[in-house]
Records
---
Amino acid sequence: MRPDIRISADGDRLARDVARAIVERLNQPLVPGGSRSLCLAGGQTPRDLYQVLATEYRDTIPWPRLHLFWGDERYVPPDDAQSNYRLVRESLLDHVPIPKENVHPMPTNLPDPNDAAAAYEQTLRERLSPPWPRFDLVLLGMGSDGHTASLFPGSPALAERTRWVATSRASVEPRVRLTLTLPVLNRAALVFFLVAGAEKADILRRVLAGPSEPVPYPAAAVRPEDGRVVWWVDQQAARSLP
Ligand code: 6PG
């Protein structure tokens, strides 16, 4: 099946196009007392998106019925400049009326990151009913090596089929990471990839080439069994697409 690709003129339009689609998803009818689960991406691309959500859509998102989770985290303190939690706090959480109990960052304060991964899995089990968590929406970025979340090419975490959260090692600092595993990502109802910039053009072409591309890039492995993937890209990143 052909990938669903939405091309925006530039990074600013991309942030606005994705924000509008997120708000539309979050405002779909809910059962009484229900809530929505949104899993956030790290890295730099989503910063503008989070700022648009915190400003233009501050008053149209049902914050009390929204629970925020993270798809991955660098194993650094939450106030570290490289923390994905800090990125979201500065660009979104500090500006919107979301109840504190609705925000579920990955813990990075335990001596052993494997214990942190297990603790986060417990958080997910408490909030999202087993046997597997089904996020209403997962936001993902993609590195120029085809990694997504903190699932890097060749990472043992890619082979994880039972744990919901795993540790992984990045090739760049901070090397120790926590990441949702593929079985969790592939049970999402909806996945939005955000890819921007000319440096992502080649990898985007390869990842979207599907079976014709023999290299198993982690981002290409995100194919929800009972869900949809939408690739939100800017023109720079899309320039190598057929
Ligand atoms: C992280 C992210 C990672 C990111 C890609 C793209 O913690 O770094 O989860 O998967 O989405 O590396 O990063 P940019 O958006 O900064 O290009």
---
Amino acid sequence: MKESAATDIRGIGVSPGVAIGKAHLLEQGQVAIPFYKLRNGAAVVAEVERFERAVAEVEKDLEAIKQKFHPELIEHAHILEAHQLILRDPQIYDQTIGLIRDQRLNAQWALKQALIKVHDLFKTVEDDYLRARVKDVDDVGQRVLRSLAGFPNGIIQEIRERVIIVARDLSPADTAQLQLERTLGLVIDMGGRTSHTSIIARSLNIPAVVATEKASRVIRSGDLVIIDGASGKVIVNPTEAQLSYYYEVQDALENYLKQIRRQAHLPARTLDGHTVRVEANIELLEEVVASRDNGAESIGLYRTEFFLLNRDHLPSEETLYNEYRELAELMAPRSVNLRTLDLGAEKMTRWAPRLDQANPALGLRAIRLCLHHKDLFKTQLRAILRAGAAAGNIRLLFPLISGVGELLQAKAVLNEVREELRSRRIPFDERMKVGIMIEVPSAVAVADLLAPEVDFFSIGTNDLIQYSLAIDRGNEHVAYLYEPLHPAVLRFIRQTVEVAHRARLPVTVCGEMAGEPLYVPILLGLKVDSMSMNPQAIPRVKNLICRSRLEDCRHFVDTILGMRTAQEIGFLLRTMVLRNFPEEFKFFDPDALTPKEIFSKA
Ligand code: PEP
Ligand code: MG
């Protein structure tokens, strides 16, 4: 701690709460290098093969990256060609294999030794330009080391103490590896409110700030850091006064949340007697306990792809079946909406087909990917249908449906699977309800045509906002344009609900908007039947529903739907919630969902 010269960094607060602790900078690209001696000749042969496989894998990666180069930039592809040559350079390749064979060293250590030698050679080079090329050797070496370690993106599991993790970027796969008990908070240079890392941080109740752009360059491991996961403020090496202020905020927030959690098990009924279902979004089975503890009435969204992210292989049908059955049994008689795989875009696995897509969010993703890889899709559908037989509470949810044709294709595969199970006399849930995510604007436009084909709609506002406002939900540069209150978004939600209700279908909102207390009056007024959110948000949302009048919310929504900009709507909304719910927003300034200055000094 310093008496002066604290550094402030600003980002977007994506998971509220205050964390205070030592920073741990994830050196992305750097992996730990184990050392061990191989026991016998067979182990040596196996280790050489492991090294060769890793080199071949990197070679393939480099080739794939090279193919991505725009034709006009093709002359720069020589850098990658150089990297490919370095990979097989005898000074590195032969030398490493020699060390594995002669000294019985493990591949990582042997490669490290070879790289050190190359470094020494480069030091003697006169020419500045050539000397700087050692960086290429390092890059290549790191690629092979990462491949050997099996973790292409960092090594979160090696953290040994409770820290605030600082990183340039965290993939959903990295985030899914977080050790909850050792992660006090997250500070990430990239991302936005609805990038999946932010979603997981909220589910795990880890205060997080993203889109800082520079935190990983400013913060060093060991620095004392305060992060305010609501306002997006990060203070590096705080002053005494800042530290004691934030300790007080931390206490006050915890007390408030403890108090409202006590009532979270009651139904969410408005003052004028209208009940709204409040459900949980989960990514992993482990979150079921938190969902129930926080008062979730059911699982509104299980993002099944997360179970697959950190695996080398697609789990067997049996493994999936056991996972889904366990979840259903844990939640029974409450329902569980199991969404089929939403892989692609930022959620890629090591075993899934690698796709070279310039624009993955608009590419082969979610249901499209499943329809292309029918075996994968069918394996999952079989596991889901079978698991449904156990407790009868599983409902199926297809992601990213863009129109009736696609939905019919998905349903045809589902019917094939049902037929197969029937003919093999394998028990499954014959009456499992089927719903779709409404998250593509075209689905809103044809909601009346989709409705007769399904049992329920679930509006995914994260993607619906991304696609209707044409902004990448994970791109920090356009994060300011991510506006849930944009009149287009509100009209889309209203349109979907109206069409669904005419067809007597229930509608859930399961995007992050549903877990944001500020939007409760809007979603109530838009007449959604249920709201599904990260489990930690449930007590606050339920508390606000119970203190609202549905009639007032409907009038309010009628008024704001006549407005032209998100700013005008936001202003009126904030004024209203501050007046009606001063206790709730005493801690969270709805302007930026920022903790307010509840104590005299900041
Ligand atoms: C959404 O898009 O709102 C949604 C809930 O799905 P995901 O965040 O997993 O894309
Ligand atoms: Mg989505």
